[in-house]
């Protein structure tokens, strides 16, 4: 047991808890679920950025830069940023049409029916649950590495810590702690990256732009570039562009920020987010450019910092990882409280908080089932794509029939999603890519076909 790191972890937890504690305690539904719809855009922008910094944004950007070079990084970074910007016009439309609402599923019920709301709830709740499991697994491993505390105990500690500060003020607790966690992430990287460049040489960044697999060459349309596009790029674009559309975390922020500031919050949130994978990828470029041999490419950033910088820099980096993961979990907990409002008519403050508690306990339990962890990580990105097409068509005022909306999403869930899952399980890139495409095509084709049949009937 590393007691020094344990004490630093306790200090970090106390600081985050104190930030949440000094926020007024939510007394009613409007403040708990929507922050009285008066959260300022600077706070919301950094909360959006922090919420979008989930596990892959912290690990994949460095790995792709190290392994696939600039090609791999751009396939990851551009859709990550673009999705938040493309989301803005749809976010504005929902805010105008649901000024006093709380969830996307609530809006879909108003437009279509209760069963359409229910199928949206399956996707929104499923995503929040699976995402929470993944963050607890990643965060638990970081804390286990830092302190030596058994992994199962770290998931309990992390889950209960985030729950404790989320219960006080709901969305306001989430946004406020996210704001400070993002500043810590950005500030830590601004310190660490230049220090590392000083150790291995800034020129290693330029020399590392090609990546390991392409032996230093930057080629978007050579054999390696095409391979990256098919195996990683296209599935990433589909998964990420659907990200905010199928995630209650972002719809709740749309409905909580001041109405006139929705666009500013998401635009600057996207820009702020971009700085983190850019800084993380810089370490990956330096690793290849300096000739560093990573034992685990997915952990190349941590290995570089551990090998070249003082121990305190490694501790800061681990807290950066925890901050990014915790910000996503507290957003998921806040989301589930809003979804409880949709699931139970006349739900009370007690019900909202109970929903948070139940999801935290369930996620902690599932994060300690080793056989299912990889599945959780692979599948929830595709799950959120199942509602993308119907959501966009609805917000664009395409008049879908109720049957079209329901069966479009259902076909995507029952055919496209399982195809993607099967492809991932057998390691077949072609099958998983077909599944990803089917998720989108089936939803649109079924929804529009059934709508036309209704009009011709």
UniProtKB/TrEMBL annotation:
Pfam families listed in its UniProt record: SSF (PF00474)
Signal peptide stretch: none
Superkingdom assignment: Bacteria
Membrane topology annotation: Multi-pass membrane protein
Keywords: Membrane, Transmembrane, Transmembrane helix, Transport
Location within or outside the cell: Membrane
InterPro entries hit by this protein: Na/Glc_symporter_sf, Na/solute_symporter, Sodium:Solute_Symporter
Transmembrane segments: 6-23, 44-61, 73-91, 119-137, 149-167, 179-197, 228-245, 266-288, 308-331, 352-371, 405-423, 429-450
Keyword Ribonucleoprotein part of the UniProt annotation: no
Similarity remark: Belongs to the sodium:solute symporter (SSF) (TC 2.A.21) family.
PANTHER family in the cross-refs: AGR155CP, SODIUM/PROLINE SYMPORTER-RELATED
Protein name: Sodium:solute symporter
